[in-house]
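Many introductory courses stop at the sequence. We go one step further.
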Amino acid sequence: DVTGGADQLFNNGTTQGTGAYSSGTLTLTVHAGQTVSAGTTYAFSIEVQNPGTAQAAPTVNIAASGSVAFASAAMTQPGTTVLGVATGGNALYVVEPVFSVLSIEQSTPVAGVSNTITATLQANCDLASGSTVTVTGLTGSQTADTGALTVSTTSGELGTAGVWTQSTGTLVLTSTGTAQATSYEVQFTLTNNAGDQAASTTLSVSGVVEAGTNDATIAGAAMTLAVSTVLGVANGSDPLLTVLPTFDTKAIGQSNPLTSASNTLTITIQTDVDLATAGDVITISGLSNAVGGASLALTDVTGGADQLFNNGTTQGTGAYSSGTLTLTVHAGQTVSAGTTYAFSIEVQNPGTAQAAPTVNIAASGSVAFASAAMTQPGTTVLGVATGGNALYVVEPVFSVLSIEQSTPVAGVSNTITATLQANCDLASGSTVTVTGLTGSQTADTGALTVSTTSGELGTAGVWTQSTGTLVLTSTGTAQATSYEVQFTLTNNAGDQAASTTLSVSGVVEAGTNDATIAGAAMTLAVSTVLGVANGSDPLLTVLPTFDTKAIGQSNPLTSASNTLTITIQTDVDLATAGDVITISGLSNAVGGASLALTDVTGGAD
């Protein structure tokens, strides 16, 4: 009954308060003793189940028969909105409930972090209190099952907690009563997978609209994805796509492997996730024994990388301490995923040799990147194998350092030949200093003529007589090459022992801080020259002398034949055809223009 006790007026042929129903026709028989009184409004209701498919409102007719006949006539429909459905009050106008808006996105694709999922839902009907909405397919998160996952919904009309099932990625929400005209936002937080994961491909939303005995089902439908880039990750808004933050490129190399030298370290990075929050930090550690100030200037190589960072305050710098470079993302800057950045810093190498350390890179802040070893180029730099590996440091030395002279004869021009080979290239502007060539007669000059292999140690050197020092300037030598240097000095005018302090040192040009090649004793040829033992040793000199110079005769009588016997011994060879010995003062001895020589000793004739 709705109005007037109408339910008791009728029966189904027998039972009062019922009506007979068959094939879309309701038959109401006036019950004994009851009267449908003219002028009285009666209202009653019956409950049916709507068909499973949509339909337009049919024309419903009413008629009466029996003691009085009422011609069939169409019943009026209210045309009212019911459950948010326009004209949904018209009898047996049936619509299929669906979600007309069903989008979903996530706040971050970063693996292992809290991720806010936002679903926007709007049905084509009201969802009466007790109705349920089920989002399915959010698989792969680390959030465990719970009957009360906290949710935030518009006006709380889809509740404040949902039932979460991890294995199927299902969240069930219960309506407190939503309106068809309203788009509802639902937010909840899941913990992303710990590693890389593809986006869910089976995301759908379904529902059950509370309707009493028989509820209406909202069939599952695929949810719409935002398909937008998040933190530089393509489609990063798609639940539950996750990316493990990684430096796809993490390379470091150096310009100079020599002890104590200025060294430009070049760092190249590329991330798979944006670092876009001011205060995010990249840490490069393991720069063992590199010497640098507390703040190091960054020099751009690629991508404007120098302006991305600060040292805590000043853009274009990094903070440095105890082998660790700390780079803080500067306000308004983004280290964009997929973009290669390269920048350099200048440090000074340690004063002793060392193997290349393991250099690590990590990031922290809004996104965490696990520490990972940086790659080294393994290239040859300055002639040093693997010298491009950051902070691989060798001590520069001369691996070949021999010296000899052309003649030990006192007072004559003497060609000095030095053979040099370093264990590294000598960059243009590097110097080589030969010291200890004391005792010559060659005066100081800033341009002593020298001859060097390919001219790579110049054509003139700076000569200092008092210390016997010759300084040569490189135009660029190669580690793999042995270089010969020749120059001429005038020997001491008398006897002189060989130099005993002959050494060679160097300075390798490297910018602010050059590398020093420590002085090392030069190797002597130790060979005989012109009959002088060790005559190849600079600057040993011998004054040419007849150590023995004797003459005697066989007959002192006038006009008699007389054999003169001459005995000589020199301290220096006379080895060149045309060298001449002159014996003068043989007064009044009579002889031909050519005198035969008779050997007495040594095959002298």
